[in-house]
């Protein structure tokens, strides 16, 4: 009887709800399509609705539906079943005037080595951003009066396609490499590529016999080598305003810092190394987390054993583990620590700033081992949402539930291309359907303890270091440095506290590790107490390259060449 009542309510709502009928203009000449159809609504015309979906209070609205085998000449309906953010259902949208837009985030078919077939959005050079991904199709925004209780369809036509992104050209100092990975091609069942942007040291051409160490910077997808500029700042640059740092003209500060780095890099006192930014965007995210994963494949091995040796071969790298080190912030901070721990012989130092959760007892603000629900603490009477994002004063701008709701609206089966979905894709086992097994129900927040146990053994870095210290301790001593602000925007400092407690207790040998905290510093703090965060976050290369060079003599093997590249 109860089920029948729910059905009657559903059909009653469906009969009096505004819906959207979407067609594709024949001029686009699209074939059969799979993907995520996104309906976007904005109450302002400051930018296209596709650029206004965010985790902050200014976000506008998105609804999403999965599309499979969309045939040319047919239409798709976005109706009351579409899941949305921040308003969950169309029937609950406030009536009013909106700028309306639709976009299809295209999926491609992959026949995995495991035997499963999955449909995912392959990166197309944009770093996994659905709103600018080349080949995605969309409509121009049109202003409509929306009345959720009106009983009629609004017709929308997709007639535009996002163009390809031009690839950066090589310059005197910056080179680009892209190789087909044998390991990844085998896993994904189609050609797969990884690459890097390489910054050559000053005097590279003038010293053709010198071989260099590798300074490997991990982070999000770098379209080109970031933070390096050979020209003085643009005098006619229109100043922007950084909402995060409350600074007008931050774009000029960035240009000045990039130019100053160029002058340091080519100056007489800067260490001569090959600085490398890895490119490993994939069907789930803008990078792979640089480890072997059940869902993403062997990216750790592909980067370590295919890409890095090829870089050293082409650009005169020393080619030894002692002459490589890793550094990065946020995602890159986690990767820097992870590859040092998982490949202890291949890297000689890791500098991990504001790393993603390094201990899953503090998976941001949830404990996946002990909590029952990701979004709410257990209580008989209260339902207090867990915070997901804050500023340096602790003011919360988004909850974990809200962040995950946005991801679920953008893509099911971990396909949003965003943060919690990529953690799930990297850390989880593969489910029967070929997609990542959920660590928690994306809608309700209920945690799966069996998946949590898998995460612990394979990707909880604090647990792995402690568990494997008798085997890897002598290879890691002195190589681990972690830095984080104590008001990290995503509460990442919480996991660092427990990691620090564990590192201090290691013995035979002692860890010799460094852990440091920035007072009231938000995300991206990198250990520099002399500068505000908005400056220090722009100085990763000059800071960590100098730091590694100052320490290398204590960790290099006897007879290592520590002089020829110090001209």
Automatic annotation (TrEMBL):
Gene3D superfamilies (UniProt xref): alpha/beta hydrolase
Highest taxon in the source lineage: Bacteria
Keywords: Signal
InterPro entries listed in its UniProt record: AB_hydrolase_fold (IPR029058), Mycobacterial_A85_antigen (IPR050583)
Signal peptide: 1-17
Keyword Signal annotated: yes
Protein name stated in the entry: Esterase
Protein species of origin: Mucilaginibacter psychrotolerans
